[in-house]
Amino acid sequence: MRIVGLGAGPANLYASILFRKAFPDCSVVLHERNREDDTFGFGVVFSDETLGHFKDADPESFAAITARFARWTDIDTWFRGEWTVSTGHGFCGLARVELLKILGERARALGVDIRYGTEITDPTTVPDADLVLCGDGVASAVRTKWADMFRPTVTQGKARFAWLGTTKPLKAFTFVFAPTEHGPFAVHAYPYRTSPTPLSTWIVECHEDTWRKSGLDRCDEPETKRRMEALFEPWLDGHPLLINRSIWRSFPTVTCERWNHGKYVLLGDASHTAHFSIGSGTKLAMEDAIALVDAFKVHGTKDVPKTLDAFTTARRPETLKLQKAAKTSREWFENVARYEGQSATQFTFNLMTRSRRITYGNLAKRDPALVDRTARAFALAAGLAVTADGPVVPPVFTPFRLRDMTVPNRFVVSPMCQYSAKDGTPDDWHLVHLGSRAVGGAGLLIAEATAVTPDGRITPGCTGLWNDAHEAAWKRVVDFVHGHSASKIGIQIGHAGAKASCRLLWEGGAPLAAPDAWPTIGVTSTPFNTGDPAPRAVDRADMDRLVEAFMLAARRADRAGFDLLELHMAHGYLLSSFLSPLSNTRTDAYGGTLENRMRFPLEIAERVRAVWPAAKPLSVRLSASDWLDEAGGQTVEDSIVIAAALKARGVDVIDVSSAGNSLKSKPEYGRMYQASFADAIRHGAGVPVIAVGGISDGDQANTLLAAGACDLVAIARAHLGDPYLALHAAAGLPPGTVAWPKQYLAVRR
Fold first, then answer.
1. Three-state SS string across 89-151, please?
2. Is 724 a catalytic site residue?
3. Which of 573, 673, 724, 744 is catalytic?
4. pLDDT tens-place string over residues 398-417
C-alpha cells in the first residue's frame, strides 16, 4: 500500500509510525510545508489515560516521550486572591517541538520519507497513492476543496485567547483568574520543560467583549506581551512572557459530517477540534491515528474506501463525546464572569467539573478533601448543623426552602405525561405512579402536564383540573403523598395550544381524526407540523377565557392540597409558543418584540400568583432555547429576560428545559445537556432554578448542585425505571439522610 500524507503534524507522523509497524511492506511519504526546525507553539499536555493508549500503540515513542516530559498530579487555582489545590489529576507536558522531533525520528527509523519544505495545495495532484492522510490542520485545504463531501461546520467561540509561554517554573497545571474593570481574564498554564531552562505554556483567555473593551484588539504581539506581563505580574514572579505567533484569536470548533472521501481521510484538526481547556487537540489527532491503523488491521487494505468508512463509523462517537465535553468547557470559560460571587472552594469544584466528564463522585475519588470541603460548605448554607470532622450529607440530600415549603432533599420527580386519564380525571394509575415515587424518597413530585380546559389536553388521556371530579381525584393522590411520605407534591398546569387533540403516545401521537378530534387554538393559525389541522389563532376573548381557566385551576390545586404550582411555558405548548419568535409571528401587541411576546404569558403568571396562596411557591417550566440561535429562535439570553420578568411577578423558581417550538430544533442530547441553560438563568436572572434533561442519578445531581448550576434537580426517565431512586442513592449515608417508610425499615441500607 502506498500512503501519502499532507502535513507532518502529530496525526500523520503517528499514523505513519503505526502503518509501518502494522504493514512493513507499505510505503509512506509525508509532505510538510514548514521546515523541520520551525518552532510554532509551546507545550502540549496529555492525561495519564491518554499515555496508556500511546504505550500500547508504540512503546518506543512512548518511552521517548515519557523520558522528556514534565509530570504533575495537582491543579492549582488562583481565584479572588485565594490559592486552592486540587489533587489526584495525572498529567504530563511536553514541548510541541520535542513531540514532533520524537515522532519524526521514530518515523524515519521505520522508513518513513518526510519531505519538509514541500507543500501540496491541490489534493488531486497527489502522486499515485492508495491512501492519502489529510492531517493538514484546522485550515485544511482538502476539507475546503471537498466541502460538499465532508460538509464541515466551523463555529467560532465567544472568547479571545493568546498562546504565550513563560520561563516561570510551574509545578502543576495552573489556573489564574484575574478580575479587571472590563471583565475577568483567565490563564491556563502548565509546565512542559523542567531543564535546562524551565518553560511553561501560558494561555490567556477572556470574553470577546472584555478583549475589545480592554483595547487588546489594537495590540500587536509585543504590546500583548507587555500588557499581559503587567496584568499577571503577581503570579509571574518577575519572569517574562514569551511570544511565538501569539496573536489573539477565537477558538474554531470544527466538525465534519464525513471524514473520508474516496482514498482521502481527514485526521486531527482537519476533521475535528476540541477546546484547549480540556487539552485534547493533540490527543485526538494521535488517537485518530491509532483508530485508523486498527481499522486497516481489521478490514484490510484491498478496499480503502470501505475501510475508511469503518474507521469513521467506529471513531466518530468517541470524538463527538469529547467535542461535546470540550464545548461545555469552552462555554464555561466564556461565561466565567457569572461565577465571580462564588467562594474559592465552590469555584474550584465548579472548575474541576465544568465539562461534566468529571462528576462529584469521580472527583471524590481523586480529591476527597476538596469534595468534603465543598459538601460541608453546601450543607452549612442549606441550614444544616455541620461539625468540623463529623459526617456530612451530599448536596442532593440537603433541604431547600421556597416560601413556606421546604423539600427534604433536592430530588424532583419531573412531570411526565401518563396519558392514562379518562375525561381528564386521574385514577389509580396516577395514585400508584406518584405515590410510589413519594415512598421512594424524592423530595418533590410534580404531577404531569394538566390541562386547564378540555381543549387544552394534548391527548384524550391527559389529566385536567377544570371540574370538581378532577379536584377530588387529585386530592386523593395528594393525601396519599402527604400521609405516607415526607415528599412535597406540585402540579403542572397548562394548555397544549396547537399541539392539542392528538392520539396517545403509544398510538403514534398523530392528530386525532373526526369524530374524536376537537378544535384547537394556537398563537397563530399555523399548525405545528405541516399537514396537521390548522388551529384558530387566539384573540383577546380567548385570552380572557384562558386567564380565568388558569386562575380556577390554581384555586382547585390549592384546595386539593398541592404544595407547589407550576405553569407550563415550555415545549411549544400554548404559552411557550407565544415566547418563541419562531412560532409567534403575530403582528399585534402580542407578537414581534420580546416584550410583546412575553405579554400574555406574564399576564397568566401575574393573575395566577394573585390567587395562589402567598405561602406556596409558584414555578414556571420554560424552554430556555430553541437550539436555533442563528435562525432567529428563542435564545438563553431571551430566557434570562423572561425569567427575570417572571421573578418580578412572584414566580419563585424556573424549571429549565428547552426546545419544542420548532421541528427544526436539534438539541445536543447527552448527559446533563440542559444544565448550562439552568446555570445561565440562575446567575443571569438571580432566581432559583430546577435543572432537568439527561440527569440520571444522584452523582450527576450532586455535581450540578455543588457547582452552583441549580437548586433542585428534576429526573424523569431514571425515576420511571427506579421509583426508589432517592432511597437507593442514600445507601451508605448516615441514618436519617432520607425518610424511609416505616413499612420498609427492615431493608434500609
1. CCEEEEEHHHHHHHHHHHHHHCCCEEEECCCCCCHHHCCCCCEEEECCCCCCHHHHHCHHHHC
2. no
3. 573
4. 999 999 999 999 999 999 99
